[in-house]
Write a structure and sequence with these properties.
Helix content is 43%, strand content 14%. By secondary structure, the protein is α+β, with helices and mostly antiparallel strands. Strands 1-3-2 form a 3-stranded mixed sheet. The two termini are 23 Å apart.
């Protein structure tokens, strides 16, 4: 599954984001979704990243704050998946996982819920 362009991958991410339940995405404020080829350390072990401050940890937060970012790594996800259906599933799982971090749900809780 390693021959998908960045544009094709981004479209898949947008399509999967559109399929998420409204109650999951309606509370996302000041969050951008981006795709990148790989994490900064170059590893293929990381599928996604929430880069921000979880709602449960925010104190003063308001006007002028840079948006939090949810990043999905194209090369990592492509290397992890064997076919298009598996890729769509992993994009979905990764989106849910990273959105959960925005809401303050940690990896331990996600694992207990079956999303870890």
């Amino acid at each position: 599954m390693e021959d998908m362009t960045a544009e094709e991958f981004e479209k898949l991410v947008i399509d999967e984001l559109d399929l998420l339940p409204d109650d999951m995405v309606e509370g996302l404020e000041n969050v951008v979704f981006v795709t990148e080829d790989r994490p900064e350390d170059g590893t293929l072990d990381t599928l996604g990243l929430y880069d921000g401050v979880a709602l449960t940890e925010r104190g003063e937060y308001g006007f002028g704050e840079l948006p939090d970012r949810i990043v999905l790594y194209r090369e990592s996800l492509l290397a992890f998946c064997e076919n298009l259906d598996e890729l769509k599933h992993e994009i979905h799982v990764t989106l849910v996982h990273e959105i959960a971090h925005f809401y303050g749900i940690d990896d331990r809780e996600l694992h207990a819920l079956g999303w870890g």
